[in-house]
Amino acid sequence: MARKPALGFIFVTLVLDVLGIGLIVPILPTLVEKLAGAETGAYTYGVLLGVYALMQFLFAPILGSLSDWIGRRPVILISLLGSGLDYFLLAWAPTLAWFFFGRILSGITGANISAASAYIADISPPEKRAANFGLIGAAFGLGFAIGPALGGWLGQDGNLRLPFIVAGILTLTNCIYGLFVLPESLLPENKRKFSWARANPITSLIDLKRYPIVLGLAATFFLMSLAHQVFPATWVLYTGNRFGWGTAETGYSLALVGVMAMIVQGGLARRIIPWLGERKSAIFGMIVCMLSLIGYAEVPVAWMIYPVIVLGAFGGINTPAIQGIISRAVGDDEQGRIQGSLASLQSVAGFIGPIILTLIYGHFRTEDLPYYHPGAPYLFAALLTGLALLLAKRSFRKVPASS
Q1: pTM, 2 dp
Q2: Residues 6+ apart with CB under 8 A from 170
């Protein structure tokens, strides 16, 4: 008897991807500083983040195109195997050079989100794809809520390598489990021969122009991803400077972000998107995101951050709605490739976003300036979201909803 497509396994895989990243977030800067030295530790850490994002940009379309050719199952399982082994490599990396090699490998294997997204598209009816794409956000929320807290607890008392070992065990366990429960989702008639030209990240982005609505929404997707970088880039700095928050308050707020993402994108999105429709959900989500970003910048007291987080979480329905529209616009034999292109756009945003947003924060947090405003990065992110909203509306006007 053929096994049923395992949407639950894909969800767990994405959770473990984010959980593994979250586990090492609290201890990675300290470990890098020990390997590189106190004087260059911060710079080296920034380069490591950039290398990881660059590898995801280069390899997301390759893995996506490979999954269109050989299937989603082998790409997902091999990526899990590589990620698990990489965590063990990082746990015992003796030098900084080995650490860089490990981050390159983790960036490559971490690009498997394109294959996972294509798997979701394969097994979801067109009208349910947007709702099911919400599981990606829910997985990120759950992993983000648990990972940093667990990593900080494991890494206390100088156990800086232990979180890598735990992440490796979890990932390899999931890989072994997947060998038994994960069936192939790509039908033989929908397979598409691999082409290096199509797998080239630049070419894959340029080829988006073949689909009028996809090109506009891909630009929207990129601007939204760029705006979202304000949180990993400045949240700790901003809340500490503006409200005097320490690690406890920061941890509580990030945990709430993760829990709300899980509730909205994993549960409520499956009701909201079919009710509003994909296009209205995308517009509604972007408006809520823009207003919440303004709220983060302008709240007068710290406690007001928490209701903004709760309300802002409903803006998260824009991403699965946009992914659903894009997925419906391309053929079944191109789902891996298109998801790889979107993952590459996210990687570019992850590379340049923190640089731009931390520069803005550093400039506007100087108190002797006449335009002192530490919340300026959030206002800039709100501006990016507004531009994304205009692009989406323009794309929807150019292409009728029935297209």
Answers
A1: 0.73
A2: 16, 19, 20
Which range of 121-130, 157-166, 282-291 scores highest in mean pLDDT? It is 282-291
User: 10 vs 122, 125, 176, 398, CA distance in Å?
Assistant: 12, 17, 14, 34
Q: What is the 3-state secondary structure (H, E, C) of 288-311?
A: HHHHHHHHHHHCCCHHHHHHHHHH
Integer Cα distance of 209 and 304 in angstroms: 42
Query: What's the chain's Rg over C-alpha atoms?
Result: 20
Residue among 250, 163, 217 at smallest CA distance from 338: 217
7-186+198-398, superfamily in CATH? Answer: MFS general substrate transporter like domains (1.20.1250.20)
The position carrying tokens 């390159």 is 104
Q: Are 31 and 18 in contact (CB under 8 A)?
A: no
Residues 22-61 pLDDT 10s? 777 666 666 777 777 766 655 676 677 778 878 887 887 7
Cβ atoms 16, 171 nearer than 8 A: yes
Do the beta carbons of residue 325 and residue 279 sit within 8 Å?
A: yes
C-alpha span between 278 and 261 (Å, rounded): 18
Cα end-to-end distance, the chain, whole Å: 37
DSSP structure class, residue 313: G
What the block records as the tokens of 66 is 């490979």
Q: What's the confidence (pLDDT) of residue 382?
A: 97
pLDDT exceeds 80 at position 210: no
